Every structure is written in C-alpha cells, then in structure tokens.
Amino acid sequence: MDRVEDTVVRASFASDNTAPATPEVMEALVVANRGPQPAYGKDEITARLERRFADLFEHEVAVFPVATGTAANALALSACTTPWGLIYCHRLAHVHEHEAGAPEFYSGGARLVALDGPDGKLALAALQQELDAAGFGVVHESQPQAVTITQASEAGTLYRIEEIKAIADLVHARGMKLHMDGARFANAAAALGVAPADLTWRAGVDIISFGATKNGALAAEAVIAFDPALGLSLAFRRKRAGHLLSKQRYASAQLEAGLIDGRWLAWARHANAMAARLAQGLTALGCASLDFPVEANEIFVRLPEKVLAGLEADGFAFHRRPAPNQQLIRLVTSWNSATEGIDGFLARAQHHAR
Amino acid sequence: MDRVEDTVVRASFASDNTAPATPEVMEALVVANRGPQPAYGKDEITARLERRFADLFEHEVAVFPVATGTAANALALSACTTPWGLIYCHRLAHVHEHEAGAPEFYSGGARLVALDGPDGKLALAALQQELDAAGFGVVHESQPQAVTITQASEAGTLYRIEEIKAIADLVHARGMKLHMDGARFANAAAALGVAPADLTWRAGVDIISFGATKNGALAAEAVIAFDPALGLSLAFRRKRAGHLLSKQRYASAQLEAGLIDGRWLAWARHANAMAARLAQGLTALGCASLDFPVEANEIFVRLPEKVLAGLEADGFAFHRRPAPNQQLIRLVTSWNSATEGIDGFLARAQHHAR
Amino acid sequence: MDRVEDTVVRASFASDNTAPATPEVMEALVVANRGPQPAYGKDEITARLERRFADLFEHEVAVFPVATGTAANALALSACTTPWGLIYCHRLAHVHEHEAGAPEFYSGGARLVALDGPDGKLALAALQQELDAAGFGVVHESQPQAVTITQASEAGTLYRIEEIKAIADLVHARGMKLHMDGARFANAAAALGVAPADLTWRAGVDIISFGATKNGALAAEAVIAFDPALGLSLAFRRKRAGHLLSKQRYASAQLEAGLIDGRWLAWARHANAMAARLAQGLTALGCASLDFPVEANEIFVRLPEKVLAGLEADGFAFHRRPAPNQQLIRLVTSWNSATEGIDGFLARAQHHAR
Amino acid sequence: MDRVEDTVVRASFASDNTAPATPEVMEALVVANRGPQPAYGKDEITARLERRFADLFEHEVAVFPVATGTAANALALSACTTPWGLIYCHRLAHVHEHEAGAPEFYSGGARLVALDGPDGKLALAALQQELDAAGFGVVHESQPQAVTITQASEAGTLYRIEEIKAIADLVHARGMKLHMDGARFANAAAALGVAPADLTWRAGVDIISFGATKNGALAAEAVIAFDPALGLSLAFRRKRAGHLLSKQRYASAQLEAGLIDGRWLAWARHANAMAARLAQGLTALGCASLDFPVEANEIFVRLPEKVLAGLEADGFAFHRRPAPNQQLIRLVTSWNSATEGIDGFLARAQHHAR
After folding, report:
1. B100 at the C interface (CB within 8 A)?
2. A237 and chain C in contact, CB less than 8 A
3. Dihedral sign from CA coordinates of D236, D238, D241, D243
4. Residue D280: other Cβ atoms inside 10 A
5. Over residues A224-242, mean pLDDT
6. I want to staple C187 with a disulfide (CB 3.0 to 4.6 A). Which of B19, C296, D39, D261 is the partner?
7. Which residues 130-169 on chain A approach chain B with CB closer than 8 angstroms?
8. What share of chain D is helix, strand, coil (3-state, %, to 5)?
9. Confidence of residue C2 (pLDDT cuts 50, 70, 90)
10. Closest to D265 (Cα-Cα) out of D335, D208, D217, D213
C-alpha cells in the first residue's frame, strides 16, 4: 500500500441508490413534520405536488406517489394492458431483468416480450418487425398492448425526441400504449436540455414512472398519467397493491423538494457531469473499453483484471457483471458524487494500470 | 363564540395517521443519511434492526420492512395461504373493510371469511363453528388455511394472551396459520404490559404485521415471521410486489428508532393514556355512550348531534360513521396527543352538552 | 329384506349430473362425427348454434360454449368485474359454495359478498341495504360491480320475472352488471312457462351461464352475453383459461340437440314433473318436512332417521347435508327419472315410516 | 378443371383437430351412457382409467382428465412453479405461441423464457447457457423453476430418450421440474417404438400433458403426474379452473377407449405412416423443400406458389405460414387420413408443378 492511497476518497459507484438524500429533501421532511395533516394524500403538500407536476409537464396529469420504482412501473403497465396482453421492452429493461415478475403480478399475467437494440435502446425496426408478426385479434395469441422504454436507458444512454416519437407513432397506430420508465428521467432531461413535455406526452408517451429515489430522495417515485383514461383505475390499483401511503405527505414532500427551482435537474446535471468526467478519465487510461456511449450517469466499462482487483482492494465500490463478463463493471454517479472521489478513482486506476 | 374557545388547542382525533413523526424517528433519518449505504436492505441499519427484533421477540425472526400496513398484511397472508385458501377474520378487520382487495390480490384469489364477534374481536365459538362446517379436503370448496386477528382490534379493544392461545390452538389443530395484524401492536403491548413474545409466538402467532407508522414513524411497517417456513417465499413476494425499498435503510432506521430503549412502548403508552383520559371525560359528560371498552388508543362514542355539531364547528377533527350511525364517532389519540387538546375537547363538549 | 324390494327400481336422486345423456344428444354427436370440420369453433354446427340461440332469446347474442358450469360462471363474472370488484350473491350460490374459488381466480381477485334471503333467493331488500352501505368510489374499499342470481336457485326455487326486474333495476342504477347462473335455466323456463327472453335480457340480465350438462348433455354449457360489450373480452378470457375446445363442434352439437324443437324444455319439464310427483308423495307421508317450495327439479326434505337409513339400505342414492343437518336430504330428478323410480322410492319410504 | 380432379379425395391436412373421433371412442361414449354414474370422477370408468394409466406407464400416477390441451399444460406447469417462476420452453412451443397466456394465468404470473433450438427442439446447450446466467436465489429476478418440452415437437420432430435424459438431468440438478407437452405423445411413442415409461419418468419427466383429442377423441386430455408431490395441488387447481367435469366419465371413457389393446399407438402409427408417405411423395416432386425431418404426423414444406395456389383451388385444406413465409405450409395427418387422400394430393401437386 502506498502513500497516495491514504488521502484518496473511497467513492462508491455501486448505485445511485447507495447515495444519501439531498439536504433539501431532508429539510422538506422536517417541514412536513411540523403538525398533523390529513392521511392518504388528502394533505396540502400532495395538492401542491399535483399542481407542480402539471406545471412541469405543461399538461393535466394524474399523479400517484409510491415508494419504489418497481411499484411505479408495474402499476403503470397494469393500467395499459389486460391480463392477456403483451408488453414490449428492451432485453435489458429493469422490468424484464430486475423486478422479479412485478409486471406479471400487477397485470394479472401479461407477458413481457424482450427485444434487442443497440446501446440499450429499443430498436424501432425490431419493434416494427415484432408487431408485424403479432397476431392482433387472434384468439390463440397474447395481444400486443403496450411498449415500455427506459429513459435514461439501462445502458446509460438516451432516447432522442425523434426516436421516442417514432416509437410512439408505431405504438399508437396499433392501438397500444407507450410507457416510459423514468427512474432516471431527471438524468435524461438534464442531459438533453429539453422540456419534460417534449420528452414525454408531446412525443407520445402516455404514462411515465417518474423517479426521485435515485436522484436525491429517500423513497419517492410517482406514476404520472398524461392519458386521463389510464388514471381512472390507478387509484384502486395502487391501494390494493398496498402502495397508497397513509402518511403520503412525506413522499409528496420528497418529490416536491426536487421540483422547487429546478433542483431535480441540477442534481441530475451534477451526476451526469461526474459521469462524463469519469468516462473521460477512463478513456485516457488507454486500457479501458466503454460498452456504451456515456450520456447520463452510468458507465459500463471493461478494464484489465489487475486494475479491477486493485480498485477493489483500494475499497472502491462498484458492480462487476456476472461471468463470463466479470471484467465489465458498472459505475454510477449521483447528486453527491464528489470531484475528489472521481479523481481519486482515476488516479488509483492509473496506478494499477501501470 | 365565547372566550374559552380562543385558548383551546384544536386537537385532531381523526387518525393516528395524521400525527407527525417523533423527533427520535426524524433524528434517525438524519443519522441514516450521513453517507452512502448498500441498497436493498444490505445496509448495517437493517442488520441491526433484525437483531433488535430478534431480541425484542426473544425468537429467531425473518424481518421484512415495507412502507404500508396494507402491504404488510397482504404479504403476510399470502405466505399463509394458497390461491384457493380461506382466510378467517373479524367483520371489522382492516383487511376486510379497508384494503380494497389487497389480500385477494397478493394471495392470487384467496377468500376472506368475515365473522362476527363482540367488541371487534373474533369469537372463538364462531370460528370453531365455521371450521367445523368447512369442507377440509373437499375439492369443490375453498380451503381453510389462515386466521387473522387484529391487535389492538379495529374497535380499540385487546385480545388477552389466553384468547390468542385458544384461537391459535384451534387454528393449528386444523393445520392452519395464525396471522396478527399489529398495526397498533404497540398500543396493545403497552396496555397489556406483557412481553411481545407472550403476545405473539408464545401464544401461537405465526406471523405478524408490526406497525410503526401509526406510532411515530413516517412510513414503516414490518412483516415478521416467527415460522421460518413462512419467511422463505416472502423475500420474493415482497420484491415482485414492489415493496423491497431500494434505500431500505431509511425504513429500517424508522423502525429501529422505536426499538431503542423501549420508545415504541412509551409512545404507545402515552397515546393509550390520552385515550383513557378522553374516555373518562366523555363518560363524565353524562350524554355519551361508548360502543366498546376503551383499552388502547381508539374510542367509539355516540354523542348528541348538538354536541357533535358544536365540536365540528369548533374545528376539532374526527370521523363520523356513515348513516344511519352518523352520531357514532371515532376518536384516535397518538404519541403526540396533548393533555391540553384532550381537556380542551372535553371542555367544549361539556359546553355544547349544556 | 322383504319381497317388495326386489322389484323396486333403485333410482338415483343424487344429482342431475349422474344422469346419462339423452338419445338425441348422443345422436347429434354421431352426426357431428361424420367428417372433418374446422377446429376451434369455426365449424358449421357452431355457426348454426349461434343462430339458434339468437332465435331462442330473440336477441343478438355472443355465445361461448365451454365444458363446465364452473367455467361458464367464472368467465361470465370475470367479464363483469375488475380484480377489485365485489360480486353479490346468495349465500347458497354455487359460485360461493362449490366452485373452489373459481370466480376469484378468473376475475383476478374480485370478492364474493354472500347475502341471505328466503327460499335460496337473493332478497332485494338485503341487496339494497348492502349497496347503500357500500363505498362506491372509495379507494379503500372493493367496488360493487356485479350481482349473480341462480335460476333455478340452489334451493330448487324460482325467481319470477318481476323479482329479476327489481334486482336488475337496482343493479343497473348503481352501474353494475347482472349475471344469471342458469345451470338449471331449462328447469326454470319450463316451470314458469315464459319466453327465455322474458326471463333474461328483457328482465335486465346482462349475461347468462346457460346449462345443458344437467339437462341431458355430456359436457356442454354456454356463456351467453346479451350485452355486446361483455362479449368483447370473453373470447380471449376463454382461450387463456383453456376452455376454447379444439373440436368445439362436439360441444356445440350437444347444445344444438337440445335447442331443436324445444327439446331442452321438454326434458326439463319432465324432470320438474317427476320432482313434483316426488314432493307430493313425500308430503303425503306425514313425516316429511320440506325446507323450500318445490318449484323445479330439486327437493330439500327432512325425514326421520329410520326412514333415511331404510332408504339408504334399499340402495337409493341421495345426499344428506352435513351434521348437524344430516336428516335433511337433497333429491334431484332429471330428464330420465322414471315414474317407477319415484313411486318405488315413495313406497319404500312409506314402508320405513310405518 | 381437368378430368383427374373429379376422382380425387379432397383431403384435409389442416390439423389433427379437424379429424373426427374414432369409432372405438364413439362406442365407448355409448357404453358410458348406459346408466347413471357418480359425478365428478367418482365413477368406475375413471377408476379403471387410473389403473390403465398406471399400467401403461409402469408407475404410480395421479391422473387428471381435462377437456383441452391448453388446460392440461397450464395446470401442469402451475403445479411446477410459483408465481415468480421462470418456465423455459422452445420458441415454437404451443404454450408460448398459441395458448394466449394460459401458463401465465394459471401460474399467477410465471414467465415463459423462449429458447431457440434446431428442428423445433430445445437445445441442451442453449438451456444450460440460460440457466448458468440465471439468478437463482437473487431476489430481484424471477426464479428458474420448470422446463417444458413438446413430444412430438411443434416441428413434427422427436426427442430421443437420451435427449430427454440430458435435459432432465440438467433440470433436476438445478432443483427444477420437467414437464412434457404430450399433445402428440402418441405419435412420438408410436414412431420411436419405446415404452411410454422410457420416454417419460424413466428419462426424468415429472409430469406430462397426455393428449387424446388429436388422436381420435372428441375432447379428452389428461395431466399425469409421476411426482406425487405435484399431484397434491392439482385437484384443487383443476376444480377452481372449471376443469373438473361433472360428468367426467365421458372424458375418461374417451381416454380409456384408446388405452385398450394399444389402440392409441395404432391410431398414431397410422397417422405417422400417412405423413411419411406424404413426405416421400413431396420429396419426389423435386420442387419441395422440407423445413424439418418428418418424424411424426406433421410436415412443414415449402412449395412453389403455383403449386400451392393450385392445391388450394382444388379444395385441399392446409395452413400457410404468415408472410413473409406464406409458401411454407403445414400438413398434418391423423388416424383417419386415407391413402387415397395422400395420393390424390400428391397427384395434384405433381400436376400443378409441371
């Protein structure tokens, strides 16, 4: 162990879920706690939140705060499909890979159809081909009813407005609904620098899971329906799933804290900048290979084993992919990633790569 | 409007869900937020919580923090039954009256059988009669598999240890499981002054929904399985229901804050004492009629319309029952009910009753 | 054992499900088997059946043949409700007592609310009281969505047209749907002597399970939707439940065999007449007590133990109710109950009663 | 139209579901109809059937007759998996392509994982690769629990005993269950000429859907569990799915008719022979291309458009695949395919190919 190490900040790049909550979110909880408030979302914070979301999206919205992204996705998709529906997604989608069957549970048995596409994004051609081959109206086959895209994607890449529009046009032409998993919607909106409305309903998104937990909250997500018809059943679906919080004001307060003065975008912008700095440094190493373009706050990079082993011994936290891809790691930055942490990681990587 | 009114604290007796969180819970959140922590319950707070629950219950336990009581109940019951099961409960049980079909959803279609019983408690004789008539093993009939009791009950009353034991013996003799909805378990344990173990597994309870939200937390409950076999599927059930919190440490911190130095019992003891003071004062009015004995922190009382209307005009918050029982109201006290609020309410009630 | 016994026909009154199929149904199978036919209901027999049902009911209908009454009921109810729905039925209803949770399974978790009512029939007042107390639109409660009545009822009694209309008016006024379990609809229509249309859609029935198995078929029932909106999902629901028969022509042929020349009514009329003869004879015994008026083909009668034991020893087949009602038996007649069987039973009963 | 056409038998190769029932099956129905029999499978025909199946498979079995293959498959798979399970199958499997979500419905939301493999058969290597990458025990992922193979496959090909054993060994080593969709098990057993036991439990199959409808019955399939543990829940699962036939004796009679004197194998052997004759003739045409080896009673062949159009104009029935594969057709033979039909088809094909 050499001297440099002692002064390095041992940053965690394991997940934006390991980061703490922002001071503004914590302060909002303190404020929300000042006195009694009506239960089950009848409170004034929730009322304000609904207006803020309508303003943010420049559209009438139905807002359903919940505690997890898995719940948000499963609820949203269940409102878009029957139990005999087909839901198309990218093979890497969180709903497909890491929600343990929640979409199937909430929908009563709808089936996910996992499609390939470069850079972790659903490919329009692949979707079109699949829909062309689908048995719409054929009683022997599950029925195509929804498509879900993840923004930012699970590969840390972004759908451009035109890409979303093209998918939405195809989806709507077949009478289906378009859902957006926005667990990292903030990172996407911050990176693309366009209005949330342009990235969602104006591009054809019918319903979104709006994430806050990964972006500075403790536990707060929201299903936001732009299509009023989709909102009708969601109040009942949420309650019977045990996701109507009795003291919902605390979840609403977390969400609201981000919406004030565009903080949610500032937090995400910082995370994105830290990822860019990290990616730049990794590229400069000469021995690193990026799997995807770095467009938001996630980096998928392959490094020599000795570098990885060294960084692990140093105490940095990150996830390796399972064998045989254990040299591929995911690095995630967050609102509180520090320049020192990034630079310390890079310095040690350079050290190990020598 | 007279002079007395000006100095009255306009207390809310609408629900223990309207009360804020305790300072200790808020402080625990601040501490939990000091740095990064592993996601999905791999954090050290959760690890400590599990040990504290094992100590509290003097038994090995499987602990599953979730955000709502409805989720806790539905998850616990789903682990006790097949989709063709029967779950027996009191007619007033929260799972039957106010969970919008969550037990059916989580269990995949099990049926609740609502039974009557005095003072909001499941009557042993009624349960026995029902089980005697049930078609155990008959393929044409749903199968008896679980019983759920609520402690404290929805009527604000308490099951004594012997009552729980008698039900448990009957339940286990038929090969069924016993669940306890402990949304207000703290109030029960504080009022009865017995060990949590005596009120649960030692009396035959297989699994409990341990509530904290109504007792000073923001949003934190826990499914606690005493029967290890029941815990096996719960990790998967919780995840696919969207109730595995990515930043679970914050829920664990809320629960832990209560378990330190017996605070959870102190908070509940205060709530119970306030309910007793309120009940005593109401009885002294001469015009009030209690529907049930007041044993925990809930009061069901009938008052003359002029008294109710007066209290409402004063600004006190409480719930009337639906017609034709609109003169029956529910008053709930909490950890932060103040003596002044109780006395102010009673003074105004006396004023209106004149 | 005395001499009379030797010549007695040992009739079975256990169930109309124990009776064989009619010669006409068997002949229809032979005819249907004469050559290849398109699969999955695209055959000409099914096409004819649909026209015959439309003629019979004087209404456009969507017809879905299935193999069992449980499937017909569960499919029909699932089209009338969401997973968080409430379905009101009589406490004795087959869907409540003898379908092992099929309605819950098919609906994705809807709840049956069992109501009392004299003579096995849903009482309008009880239904109205229940609906008045229901939390329509309240997110914490399951939502009232359907009512199901059984015609002829499980008590062997009949709803008159005005009774159905009164229930239907109440049901429709609350935005709900009315289903009729017509496992013994033939017996009802034959006994009441009114047009099938008058007993169903003209009285407000939205969807019916039309039974044939108990009335001379091998295995053939049909879900018949009068409300076209209810039919839309049923094709998919039936297929994914495994109830779309690949060689559906054979089920259609069984159903069609009954619809030719009013045979279905003739078969049921015979069964009803045999039940009437049996009831008359039992009453004449002096020691028998009927639980319900005998209006169709079922009799619920209490007899002295020595009579019951004697009849059982004689070899007659019938079902006793479970303890403590084991002296209450159900006697069911069918299209092939013979006068000799009835009279033999009565003679032996008289013998044992001496 | 030329002269030859007038004497050609216009055979149907659309499906073995379009074929009539065998005389022996029809006769069995007549015999079963001779008098009253206990309902719900308590009859003597069902009792005999269970013994015959035990004899046939040389193993204790739990037998559950049902009306459709979709029901048999969905029931069997539901007994092998939890709602959060993964079920691996070939991409062409009937459960994946043509059951409209029945496996998801019956299992409560388990997910099918469709794998590729040559000749319509699940490839061991593909399965192994998938299982190696699966997250056994990882709470964020659906859990691998069952594999289903189709014998004969949807491509009309056969798994050899060693192939089944290899899959079964892999499956059991991971604690999973192996299901066989035997809708055309008769064709497989007849073609391979080995004992049913060798093709099933001795090779590691835990449960089979045993088909009869495509092999001469009207509507009769059976779930047969070799693993007694799998049979435990099936009685309840079947009933609540509406697949317990009240007059089950008629389904049992159809199944039994095939088991007498090895008829089921004789019928299938004939169908196989007709397919072989047809394949041989097609190959001789010179312009035909087979997609898969013809091993049972299904042929997938590509023919010039003029030949296909000519045969369609002649009135032969067969299915084209959807665009862009509309020149690929499926030809299915059955127990009653006639040599004249085969030869007539071939003669006309030759005529059109000129």
Report:
1. yes
2. yes
3. negative
4. 12
5. 95
6. C296
7. none
8. 50, 15, 35
9. very low
10. D335
Top-tier CATH class for A23-262 = alpha beta
Identify the helix (H) or strand (E) that includes residue A177: strand A177-182
CB B208 within 8 A of CB B200: yes
What confidence tens digit (pLDDT) does each residue in C284-331 have? 999 999 999 999 999 999 999 999 999 999 999 999 998 889 999 999
- Closest CA–CA distance from residue B139 to any residue of chain D (Å): 6
Interchain CB distance below 8 Å, D239 and B139:
yes
Nearest CB to A245: which of B29, B67, B100?
B67
pLDDT at residue number A322 = 86
Residues from chain A that touch D94, judged by Cβ atoms under 8 A, are: none
CB contact under 8 A, D112 and A112: no
Instruction: Report the alpha-carbon angle A275-A221-A191, nearest 5.
Output: 30
Predicted local confidence at residue B323, as pLDDT: 82
- What residues are paired with A299 via a beta bridge? A331
Query: Between these two residues, B158 and C7, which has the higher pLDDT value?
Result: B158
Q: Given CB atoms, is D214 within the 8 Å cutoff of chain C?
A: yes
Provide CATH 3.40.640.10 ranges for chain A: 23-262
CATH 3.40.640.10 residue ranges of chain B are 23-261
d(CA A297, CA A331): 8
pLDDT above 80: residue A8: no
Helix axes C228-240, C69-80, angle to 10 degrees: 130
* CATH number at C4-20+264-353: 3.90.1150.10
**What is the secondary structure of D211-262 as a DSSP string?**
E-GGGT-SS-EEEEESSHHHHHHHHHHHHHTT-S-TTTHHHHHHHHHHHGGG
Q: State the span(s) of chain C assigned CATH 3.90.1150.10.
A: 4-20+264-353
D124: closest CA of chain A, how far (Å)? 19
Examine the predicted complex and report whether its ipTM is higher than 0.90. Answer: yes
The pLDDT > 90 percentage for chain C reads 92
Report yes or no: C243 at the A interface, CB cutoff 8 Å: no
Assign C35 a pLDDT band (cuts: 50, 70, 90).
confident
The two tokens of residue A158 are 């972004």
Interior angle at CA D317, CA D314 and CA D322, nearest 5 = 115
Q: Where does CATH 3.90.1150.10 sit in chain A? A: 3-20+264-353
Tens of pLDDT along C278-294?
999 999 999 999 999 99
Cα–Cα distance, B92 to B150 (Å, whole number):
10
pLDDT of D6 higher than 60: no
Contact check, Cβ <8 Å, D82/B40 = no
Which parts of chain B register pLDDT below 70?
Answer: 1-9
> Chains with ≥3 Cβ pairs under 8 A against B?
A, C, D
pLDDT at B351: 97
Q: Which of D17, D36, D99 sits opposite C20 (nearest CB)?
A: D36
pLDDT tops 50 at residue A3: no
Q: What's the CATH superfamily of B3-20+264-353?
A: Aspartate Aminotransferase, domain 1 (3.90.1150.10)
Q: Mean pLDDT for chain D?
A: 95
Q: Which residues pair with D177 in a beta bridge?
A: D146
In chain A, % helix, strand, coil (3-state, to 5) comes to 50, 15, 35
Chain A nearest-CA distance from B35, in A, is: 6
> Of all residues in chain C, what percent carry a pLDDT higher than 70?
97
Q: Do D112 and A110 touch (CB under 8 A)?
A: no
Nearest-Å Rg of the Cα atoms of chain A is 21
CATH architecture of B23-261: 3-Layer(aba) Sandwich (3.40)
Q: What is the pLDDT of residues A134-167, one digit of tens each?
A: 999 999 999 999 999 999 999 999 999 999 999 9
* Contact present, B110 and B77 (Cβ < 8 Å): yes
Question: What per-residue confidence (pLDDT) applies to B8?
Answer: 41
